[in-house]
Amino acid sequence: MRSPSGSAYLEAFKGLQKGLLNSLAMAIPATLISSLLGSLNGYVLTKWKFKCADTLFPAILFGMFIPYQAILIPLFQFMSDIKLAGSIWALILVHVVYGIPITSLIFRNFYATIPTSLLEASKLDGASFFGIYRYILFPLSTSSFVVVLIWQFTNIWNDFLFAVTLTSPATQPVTVVLQGLGAGQISHYEIQMAGAIVAALPTLLIYIVLGRYFVQGVLAGSVKG
Predict the structure, then answer these.
(1) Is residue 2 part of a domain?
(2) Averaged over 8-30, what is the pLDDT?
């Protein structure tokens, strides 16, 4: 009978180290940018009425229903044309654009619960467009930001299709590197399983630390009045 050993986890971490760094370099900025843009979109769509606003929101939401596979070939061609194919920046751009519909929806639902009279009073006091957002809406959006950050980080971290298509061997995130971990003439299943756990740790830790805020944030925009 063999005694327990952590050697598989050590080998898995060594094999995934570069992929983990690439995933962090991709997921963190993509999550932050898409969350901020979604917040601004939600603010504009709920509190600043303008022409075609009711048409623009469904058009933004339509992006949620476009399958990745449907745009994969033209997306790769576009990234090649703008010289981003094979880089982490390609993944950041894709995940920011694909994240805007869901982040806009979450923030729009939350901002709809904030009284418009509060913003109108701020306008009378001389607050600007960005002043209202910075000093009133942004501080009130903590719970929604937690929801969006967790949601976006999890989706971006777990992505495989865009990652395997748009990156080069030097920029592959952990989901792609994990596929070839322990491969060879003899399959090392213990290293592959340990690698799966190592790759899942960042998202697991986020849910452990921020899980209760996630539930609060989801419920925050569910009831109005």
Answers:
(1) no
(2) 93
